[in-house]
Amino acid sequence: MLGRSNRREFLKKMGLTTAGTLIVPAFLQANSRILQPNGKRLVVIQLSGGNDGLNTIIPYRNELLYSLRPQLAPDTDQVLKLTDDAGLNGNMTGFRALFDEGDICILNSVGYPNPNRSHFRSMDIWQTASSSNEYLSTGWLGRYLDSECSPDKEITAVEINNILSLAMKGEKYKGLPVTNIQQFYQSARSAEASSYSGNNPTAEFLYKTMADTRSSASYLYEKNKIFSTKKTYPDNIFGNQLKQVAEMIMSGVESPVYYVSLGGFDTHNNQHARQGRLLKIYSDAIKVFAEDLKQNGEWTDTLVMTFSEFGRRVKQNASGGTDHGKANNLFIMGGNLKSAGFYNELPDLSNLNEGDLDHQIDFRQVYSTLLNGWLGADAESIVKGQFDRLKFI
Is 190 among the domain residues? Predict the structure, then answer.
């Protein structure tokens, strides 16, 4: 058993104490071995802040759009036309190319009953797959890990972030937050400690956690040496996130889920310029990412889901922006889609609910489809209910 002074010395050496309190840093809170169960992977992209779906997928022939958004709705000659009725924000040329190649399925009016306009609460609902009146402490992807993990079959998911999202947290297992693989590896190595034998539960847990974390760090570090992309990704944080995901995939990291985020979509004012800049960042990066995976034979085993916690109000506000709304569009991308293009009808702007779009597709239908139809898991137990599967895969 570790004595009190030895235990304190060990914790100080590991950097696990501050002001007398035990802390387990994020890089120590990881599962060890990584296993991809069926060879398929899901990449989740979160557009944080509530992206305005009506200025992303634009019903450019709908006169109501221009009457409700006289300064905000783009001129028709600025729209990248996809169909006779719908087009893209003019900054999304990369996205347009993927759409034309049959790699994108657009789902309109996605949401949930009794929606919440709070960023934090609505994001919790999306990340936990809860009802609007239900509060869960585990995420839908974390519960997927719980359902697929066992003592002899551990898997984990990777989030390119320094803080793990609630979506990736299960009761027993959780994803691995990483911003830089080399730094993660060096941090794990610097916290190395001598072997432990004894019956102190806290110390035993810390040693086991360290061993597991060093195993994950070494695995990712060695795998990441295998492939270095030749593609030029956009020189920004989001582009670098997708570049890291692509290199892990091509290096053979056997993770079924990757999670990345792009923030800044809370456009209450000056929306035209702000949202346009963000959509260009998103569109340009996802285009390079798809090309990279295609050229390396990984696109058909990859699905990308892009969501935001809610859409915006249909009517513009007085500050050149939009306020928090309800239903929104959601994108599914990949090389193995059964339904490309528009999955359902554009939103009905003549039939609003207190100025908002009503949802036509429950987001848990999307999750159930991804879990059951793509990852091969028991969607009903993970999403905690029966939701009709969709037919995009």
Answer: no
